[in-house]
Write a structure and sequence with these properties.
The protein contains four helices and five strands; from the N terminus they run ααααβββββ. With about 150 residues, it is of the alpha+beta class. It folds into two domains: about 1-80, no CATH class; about 90-150, OB fold (Dihydrolipoamide Acetyltransferase, E2P) (Beta Barrel), CATH 2.40.50. A five-stranded mixed beta barrel has the order 1-2-3-5-4. Strand 1 (about 95-100) and strand 2 form a beta hairpin. The longest helix has 27 residues, at about 50-80.
């Protein structure tokens, strides 16, 4: 068994490569992808009758190079469009909604935007009656600032 393993160690490196890629799918950090690249380079080195310790060195060197060269490139490429994307409550700004409770100078009203109800105040301090269509122009904590759509 040991003799077979010594002469076919590329199978072990292949198993490491496949396992690293499978685990990478569940993490998304792209570190395990770098280990898969290192193991793939060790697969190439294995049939060249290089001693096992040298295969491990190839694995370590190419994994390290991948972490510093390949991973930043992949992260930049895959996450290039996330900088300008709003999420959570900030995504409400610019959306339109229906006022379900009127806004007066003395009290805030409620607006329904995409099925969610938010406490709302008028941007210019004016009264807005129930049933008016409004646009969200700002947000402070859980209170949105709206303006009437003409």
């Amino acid at each position: 068994m040991i003799d077979y393993l010594n002469s076919h160690f590329w199978l072990v490196w292949t198993l490491i490569t496949v396992l690293a890629l499978i685990l990478e799918v569940s993490t998304g950090t792209f570190y395990l992808m770098c280990f898969a690249i290192g193991a793939a380079c060790a697969i190439i080195a294995s049939p060249l009758c290089i001693p096992f310790w040298m295969q491990v060195v190839v694995f370590i060197v190419f994994s390290t190079l991948s972490i510093f060269a390949v991973r930043p490139f992949v992260l930049r490429y895959l996450h290039s469009h996330e900088d300008g994307r709003l999420s959570n409550a900030d995504a409400l700004i610019g959306r339109e909604g229906l006022l379900i409770e009127p806004i007066t100078e003395q009290s805030a009203g409620y607006v329904r935007v995409d099925g969610d109800e938010w406490k709302a105040v008028s941007a210019d301090g004016s009264d807005i009656e129930k049933g008016a269509m409004v646009r969200v122009v700002g947000r402070e904590s859980i209170i949105v600032t709206v303006e009437r759509i003409n």
